[in-house]
Design brief:
This protein has 114 residues and is mostly helical. It contains 5 helices and no strands.
């Protein structure tokens, strides 16, 4: 099992819970973020891990820092979860998902080459 497999498995499980229960998407997003802050390997060559941490961090920040955007942020969380479950495991689809969420939806700027 690769070092990123437990993280991917946990993200998949949390994403599925977001879609299949009445629990708050925010609570599941915090769980995903907690995996990263709890020492999940985000710099082990699996590019998705770092990007997923950024995505879920940004979505939880929107709830915490701009409470008036909670409904929109939680809708984004559910959509992000649904789309991740569809893309996960297909490296091309994952790359497209990560690029779209980071740059098109969350508007992270692509760093300039150094």
């Amino acid at each position: 099992m690769g070092t990123s497999d437990p993280f991917r498995t946990a993200v998949r499980a949390r994403a599925a819970i977001m879609l299949d229960s009445d629990t708050s998407p925010y609570e599941q997003a915090l769980e995903i973020l907690g995996l990263v802050s709890g020492g999940a390997p985000v710099d082990n060559g699996d590019e998705a891990l770092y990007s997923l941490a950024l995505i879920w961090g940004e979505l939880t920040d929107r709830v915490e820092l701009r409470p008036e955007e909670t409904d929109q942020a939680e809708m984004h969380m559910v959509t992000a979860a649904r789309e991740w479950l569809a893309a996960e495991g297909d490296r091309v689809a994952e790359a497209q998902y990560l690029d779209r969420w980071l740059h098109d939806i969350l508007e992270y700027e692509v760093p300039a080459p150094t």
